[in-house]
Every structure is written in structure tokens, then in C-alpha cells.
């Protein structure tokens, strides 16, 4: 049973889109090219600014056009929670 749950969880990370305005650090780590430091930088940026669209992720230091090319189909920018 645990094995089945693990497989299901892994599949959800592979095929689900990641909302960059609400994703946890673990969800951000599932994106190609994102390590711990970049995931933390994304969270820090969105806590201060939030993302109005996926292109704004390039405002985060260390994230550029190559990242967007690899991940555009896997990320969304949902409702902004910053006041």
C-alpha cells in the first residue's frame, strides 16, 4: 500500500502544474533547474511581490529565459496572496 501511495505522489509531481504563487518548497523543487536556493528565492520574492504571470518568475535572481523555456508548460501563476 505504501508503495502505491509513493508512486501516486511521484506521478502527481511529474504531471501537475506548479502554481508559483502558492507552491511549497518541495513542489518548486520538482521543476527542472530548481534547487533549494532557487526555490527559497522564489518563495522570498513572492512573499514580497507575488507573480501576476509566469513570465515574472524571471525577476527572481538566477532564473532566466532558459528556465521558462523548460518549464512554461509546468507552471502557472494563480491568485496573488500578497496585500
Description:
- With about 80 residues, this protein is mainly α.
- It has one domain: Photosystem II 12 kDa extrinsic protein (DNA polymerase, domain 1, Orthogonal Bundle), CATH 1.10.150.320.
- The protein is about 45% helix and about 5% strand.
- It has 4 helices and 2 strands, in the order H-E-H-H-H-E.
- It has a two-stranded parallel sheet with strand order 1-2.
List its traits.
two-stranded parallel ribbon, DNA polymerase, domain 1, mainly alpha, 47% helix, 83 residues
Shape: globular
Helix content: 40-55%
Could you spell the SSE succession in H and E letters?
Answer: HEHHHE
Query: How many discrete domains?
Result: 1
Computed structural class: mainly alpha
Which CATH architecture is right? Orthogonal Bundle
Largest sheet entry: 2 strands, parallel
Q: In terms of per-residue confidence, which ranges show pLDDT below 50 for 5 or more consecutive residues? A: none
Give the full name of the CATH homologous superfamily: Photosystem II 12 kDa extrinsic protein
Reconstruct the topology from this structure.
Layout: H1 2-15, E1 18-19, H2 25-29, H3 36-48, H4 65-71, E2 75-76
Parallel strand pairs: 1-2
Write a concise synopsis of the structure shown.
The chain has helices spanning 2-15, 25-29, 36-48, 65-71, and strands spanning 18-19, 75-76. It has 83 residues and is mainly α.
Amino acid at each position: 500500500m505504501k508503495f502505491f501511495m509513493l508512486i501516486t505522489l511521484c506521478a502527481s509531481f511529474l504531471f501537475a502544474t506548479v502554481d508559483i504563487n502558492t507552491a511549497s518548497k518541495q513542489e518548486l523543487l520538482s521543476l527542472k533547474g530548481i534547487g533549494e536556493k532557487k526555490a527559497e528565492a522564489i518563495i522570498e520574492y513572492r512573499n514580497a511581490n507575488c507573480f501576476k504571470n509566469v513570465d515574472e518568475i524571471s525577476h527572481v535572481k538566477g532564473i532566466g529565459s532558459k528556465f521558462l523555456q523548460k518549464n512554461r508548460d509546468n507552471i502557472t501563476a494563480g491568485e496573488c496572496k500578497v496585500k
